[in-house]
UniProtKB/TrEMBL annotation:
This is Avidin. InterPro entries: Avidin, Avidin-like_sf, Avidin/str, Avidin/Streptavidin-rel. It holds the Pfam family Avidin. The keyword Secreted applies. The lineage of its organism: Eukaryota, Metazoa, Chordata, Craniata, Vertebrata. Belongs to the avidin/streptavidin family. The keyword Metal-binding does not apply. Keywords: Biotin, Disulfide bond, Glycoprotein, Secreted, Signal. Gene3D superfamilies: Avidin-like. PROSITE patterns: AVIDIN_2. GO terms for cellular component: extracellular region. Its main location: secreted. It is found in: Secreted. GO terms for molecular function: biotin binding.
């Protein structure tokens, strides 16, 4: 899958209970460190209409102290191509509790199959 920022993710086989894992390669970063591959783990509903909701966490521990969580839903577009509409929260590590207020960013990403 690739999103509108150019980030790529690979999702491995979804388990019978809806759990899945995969790899996330972000195209952008708030850190100064070189970007590296991150792990992801998530859970999806297994609805037969294939328009399932899901959530997953991305842990960029190899280059970042942040944690990102995504929630979304799969749709079949007008062209019958699958698309994932997601919203995310990105939690940055801050040094003190007084900086807590500025530690969370939010946004939206759309993913298409590549
Ligand atoms: C960091 O900046 O600390 C780690 C990388 C975070 C990448 C974020 S997650 C939400 C947004 N969507 C992406 O594809 N990349 C950014």
């Amino acid at each position: 899958w690739e999103n509108d920022l150019g980030s790529k993710m690979q999702v491995f086989k979804v388990g019978k209970d809806g759990t899945f894992s995969g790899e996330y390669h972000t195209a952008v970063s708030s850190t100064e460190e070189p970007i590296r591959l991150s792990q992801l783990t998530g859970f999806q509903h297994l609805d037969e209409d294939e328009q399932c909701t899901f959530g997953f966490t991305v842990n960029g521990k190899k280059f970042s102290d942040s944690t990102a969580v995504f929630v979304g839903q799969c749709f079949n577009g007008d062209d019958r191509k699958e698309v994932l509409h997601t919203s995310w929260l990105l939690r940055e590590k801050v040094d003190s509790e007084s900086d807590d207020w500025k530690a969370t960013r939010t946004g939206r990403n759309t993913f298409s199959r590549i």
